[in-house]
Amino acid sequence: MIKQIAVLPGDGIGPEVTEEAVRLLEEVGKQFGHTFQFQFADIGGCALDKTGTPLPEETLQICRESDAILLGAVGGPKWDHGPGEKRPEAGLLKLRKALQLYANLRPVIVFPALVNASTLKPEVLEGVNLMIIRELTGGLYFGQPRGRKETDEGLAVVDTLYYTEAEIERVLRKAFEIARLRKKHLVSVDKANVLDSSRLWRETADRIGKEYPDVKLEHMLVDNAAMQLIRRPGQFDTVVTENMFGDILSDEAAMLSGSLGMLPSASLSDSGPGLYEPVHGSAPDIAGQNLANPLATFLSVAMMLKYSFNLEQEAQAIEQAIHKVLEDGYRTRDLAQEGERYLTTTEMGEKVRAYLKQEVPS
């Protein structure tokens, strides 16, 4: 099997974690008899510096012609003060929209070996394994009009929260399908007591839910959901919500796993390549120091194998290798306790690849 993968290292620690992820994919190919071909392209701040745009047309074309996309991270203080369309993040938003990557899947798994890395009590975290599904191409981040203008009362700004019923329906349908494959319990998060968009969201969820009688549908207001994620996270299995709520809740959920460095994600469309990236940002404070945690990127690679290539066994081999590395006490700096020795980015990559070899059936 030959698969084409677009690699967008991006900014900050992005190049470091994607380099290790490419090595991991090469090892998977070697162990399981697959061929992965990589084509590298620029996005974000590095693309801005080279071409004046955060998403060059060449990058977009490479992505369209690939079977899957691996992204590192974008952004950094160097580009924080440019206009909106010249910010690194604008390139990522444009890529998601161009490829119609409307469903963002963010699994949150508490590895037993990392229970003490979280600030929450171990008994609160026991057995936590949930999936947050975030609508990714609509809502406040894309709605028009937006911007700022001078008024008689000073500067005024507007951001528009815009959704069509069809946009809401397709991500809810995806969420019901995923919930059906998990524990058949779907929590739909909204703000229906205040927002018209949320009321349409809730109405659509109820309508679509009738097509999935085997899935229990529960509605939860976003402020309550934020509290419940910390109070009793084990009550959740599959969660679906709109763009901004999903952005915030999935980052909050990072505290369950102990670090943003442990959270992968997949962004999927109805056709075309999926985009796989760690949830963490570009971490410019540690960029180039070989300190970044590559495990979220490795878990994103596992999601790529599972969702884009239907390679379930290979995905499980990566996940099991990571489990065993952590169980044997290996940590990167973000996961280490005070005074505990930690591995560099490249050392962690070497460990996971070594453990991967042990997971491959002879």
Find the CATH topology of the largest domain.
Answer: Isopropylmalate Dehydrogenase
Going by CATH, the homologous superfamily of the largest domain would be Isopropylmalate Dehydrogenase
Question: Compute the gyration radius: what is it?
Answer: 20 Å
What's the average pLDDT?
94
H/E element sequence: EHEHHEHEHEEEHEHEHEHHEEHHH
The biggest sheet, with number of strands, parallel, antiparallel or mixed sense and barrel status, is: 10 strands, mixed
Task: Tell me which CATH architecture of the largest domain applies here.
Answer: 3-Layer(aba) Sandwich
Could you name the CATH class of the largest domain? Alpha Beta
In total, the number of strands is 12
Low-confidence stretches: none
Q: Main sheet: which strands, in order across?
A: 2-1-3-12-11-4-5-10-8-9
Q: Roughly what fraction of the amino acids lie in strands?
A: 15-25%
Structural class: alpha/beta
Helix content: 40-55%
Q: How many separate domains make up the residues?
A: 2
| Cα shape | globular
Alpha-carbon distance between the two ends? 20 Å
Discrete helix count: 13
